[in-house]
Amino acid sequence: KTTSNKNVEAVGTLQCENGRLNEEVRKLKREVSELQLHTRENNILITNVPVTNHESIFDVLDSIAKILEISFHRSDVSAAHRLRTPRESNRHPIILVSFMSRATKSEWITARRFRRSLSAREIQPSFPDEQIYIQE
User: What mean pLDDT do residues 118-124 have?
Assistant: First the structure.
């Protein structure tokens, strides 16, 4: 075989391999996207809760659950923490809660919808009388 024939053959092989790899990347991106969506299905965001020194997110969640008149067990939560906010921001960091089940998440969302208002002051009397939001 001549050098040019070998080069043409090599280019064809590389193009074929590149096409296969591109398809695999597309498939993996879809899978990652689906996994991320599935992971977020059990999450809620709680906004406008002031931060306190040495706070326990679980204590905050327990207080909110009592106000919403729903049961709360730490075992229902797979993770709970505050998200970072930009340094210049004067907003309270959002609380992200990842529940073990979608049913528990739905219970929280439904309870919040039935309650017209939820004030930070209800969690702790020293907090400002600002609305707390719970969203998906």
Answer: 95
Rg (CA), the chain: 25
The pLDDT, as a whole number, for residue 1 is 65
The range of the structural domain enclosing residue 35 comes to: 1-40
Give me the residues paired with residue 79 across strands.
98
Indicate if 69 and 131 belong to the same structural domain.
yes
94/48 Cα distance (integer angstroms): 7
Residue 34 shares a structural domain with residue 82? no
**60 with 77: CB under 8 angstroms?**
no
96's CB contacts (< 8 A; 6+ apart) are 43, 44, 45, 79, 80, 81, 82, 83
